[in-house]
């Protein structure tokens, strides 16, 4: 009987599986299966990218739908070092990852029952949410692709003059450089460049604005409505207490998912809908 290999979720005290020869585990979430080596030329790590991900969809004749997950992207291919006769089957490889993730409290989101070469998993580790795809190629090799949920860092920020020009022309301006953790209303430190620009505008212009929070349509409507108001309030408090803006200039409001600027049918559209706006009173 073939030896059954187990992929063990990496933890601080044990991040590299025995039998490793290449000097790298290849993927930060999982240790390497025994008698495998990571293809160093296949390793990809990007701060922000997309992963095509399959989810169950009873309305689709195929039984699934393709969605895009966005965040920190990581991928690595692992090559089996033995002979073809010794190579584990797709089922054996995928079942090991399924077991490893579910034993750590994760979920199996979708299994490809037709080609039987892919499994889609979800897990939480150190407070982060990961979407994982494992692909087995039928000859003993496998590839792990994953997304860690995170917002894209907004490197291009409107300055005070550009904010003024947009408000004068359109009456509102959208900001994507104000960050929150999922389902939270605490402004993250990465938001500082955008908040600095907003504060500079408000300090140099005697105008009163609504600070409006927007969400996508994922989840409960009432929760999203409350969350959008809580986030707008958090932004307002930050502007007043940390950046010296007059409280009389900023009024927090939340509209939840009621004012989308794009379709909520894909992840790209949802990302555009999650925003904070200034609207002239």
From TrEMBL:
Localization of this protein: Cell outer membrane
Transmembrane segments: none
Cited Pfam families: OmpA (PF00691)
Biased composition (Basic and acidic residues): 265-281
Domain of life: Bacteria
Signal peptide boundaries: none
Keyword Protein biosynthesis included in the entry's annotation: no
Protein name per UniProt: OmpA family protein
Organism: Taibaiella chishuiensis
GO cellular component: cell outer membrane
InterPro entries: Bact_OuterMem_StrucFunc, OMP_bac, OmpA-like, OmpA-like_sf
């Amino acid at each position: 009987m073939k030896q059954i290999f187990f992929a063990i979720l990496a933890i601080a005290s044990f991040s590299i599986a025995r039998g490793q020869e290449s000097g790298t585990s290849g993927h930060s979430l999982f240790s390497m299966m025994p008698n495998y080596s990571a293809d160093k030329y296949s390793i990809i790590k990007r701060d922000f990218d997309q992963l095509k991900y399959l989810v169950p969809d009873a309305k689709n004749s195929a039984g699934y739908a393709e969605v895009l997950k966005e965040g920190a992207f990581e991928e690595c291919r692992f090559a089996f070092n033995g002979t073809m006769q010794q190579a584990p089957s797709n089922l054996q490889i995928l079942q090991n990852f399924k077991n490893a993730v579910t034993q750590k409290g994760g979920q199996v989101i979708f299994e490809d029952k037709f080609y039987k070469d892919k499994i889609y998993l979800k897990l939480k580790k150190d407070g982060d949410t990961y979407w994982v795809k494992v692909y087995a190629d039928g000859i003993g090799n496998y590839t792990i692709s994953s997304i860690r949920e995170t917002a894209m860092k907004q490197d291009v920020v409107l300055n005070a003059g550009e904010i003024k020009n947009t408000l004068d022309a359109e009456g509102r301006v959208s900001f994507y450089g104000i960050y929150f953790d999922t389902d939270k209303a605490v402004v993250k430190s990465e938001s500082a460049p955008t908040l600095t620009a907003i504060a500079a505008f408000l300090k140099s212009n005697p105008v009163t604005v609504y600070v409006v929070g927007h969400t996508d349509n994922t989840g409960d409507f009432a929760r999203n409505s409350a969350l959008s108001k809580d986030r707008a309030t958090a932004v307002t408090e930050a502007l007043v207490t940390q950046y010296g803006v007059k409280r009389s200039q900023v009024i927090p409001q939340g509209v939840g998912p009621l004012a989308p600027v794009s379709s909520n049918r894909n992840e790209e559209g949802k990302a555009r809908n999650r925003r904070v706006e200034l609207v002239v009173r």
